[in-house]
Amino acid sequence: MEISNRYHSLNAAIYPWFEDQWQRVLRLHNDNHLPHALLLSGMPGIGKACLAEAIAGYVMCHQPLADSACGTCRSCVLLNSSGHPDLYFLRPEELGKPIKVDQVRQLTEFMHNTAQQGGYRVVVLEPAEGMNISAANALLKTLEEPGRDTLLILITHQLGQVMPTVRSRCQRLDCHTPLESVAVQWLVKELSVEPHEAEQLLKVVHGAPLAGLEFKKRGHQTLRADFLTALRDILRQRKTPLEVAGQFLKADFDLLLGWLQGLLADITRILLMGNDDLIRNKDMQKLLKGVAKNSTKDKIFTLADLVQSERFSLQRRLNPNKQLLLERILIDWSALVRA
Ligand SMILES: [Zn+2]
Hints:
By secondary structure, the chain is of the alpha/beta class. It has two domains: 3-174, 3-Layer(aba) Sandwich (Rossmann fold), CATH 3.40.50; 219-337, Zinc Finger, Delta Prime, domain 3, CATH 1.20.272. 53% of the residues lie in helices and 7% in strands. Strands 2-3-4-1-5 form a five-stranded parallel sheet, sandwiched between helices. It is elongated and about 70 Å long. Zinc ion is lined by residues 61-63, 69-70, 73, 75-76.
């Protein structure tokens, strides 16, 4: 593994919504009850990796304060600059690919060496569900007997997909999605936006504040607005599905399909519960109600299934032709309100 992948300075902020989890880890550590392995579980985009790094920084610090690392000892200085030789990050070599057994074997070698700075050694592995079966099996021995003063921090976005043999060897630290009020307050401060804008943003990213931050910073809002306008244009027959598919050929399809799934979920809510308060995409409320009124449950469910399965195959890179995929979905979208 490239050294640059292993070492980087830490972002060890404790987000306000993780204060309980943080205090729990501090208590365990101060009582000498810290387990060998922690499993941080929660939805993506809420800051689990930062929490993991903060925990790493704290247990590796040579003179920790009551509730934070000192920031000045040799360990803290290393962590905040070039990186610490006793902190090991294990992630897929490519985004979306599995963690391979060879990578776990390299980790095992690291575990056999003594800590260079004479304190804790910490491994951060993300995502735990990204290990293929042989990689997970190779990790089991290490999880059982990692050696003294060693902490493995596994991070998962999908607890159900982590192998039970791995799960049972870790102590779980559940990281809940923050309360909306807490997340809104945080986003307002981070992005200097009005509360209503933060609220809207948060709905689009299913309540995950860091995903909201990323979304705004990467200009996803513009892309989303353009895509939603195009979807509206298709229904009004101002644009054809083919034209729109061409327009978005270079966009991130996973994002587009995710937004479309969100719209279809809203239409389903209107159809099944008839309650507008449950709509997440408030900025599309009028259009969503129009579709719900003029379409059928069958059509909506069939399209929702199609979008979900195509999104899944895209994530696994099984779908070779993106243009055709989007055309097919948009043709079905256009047919939602036609007899
Ligand atoms: Zn320190």
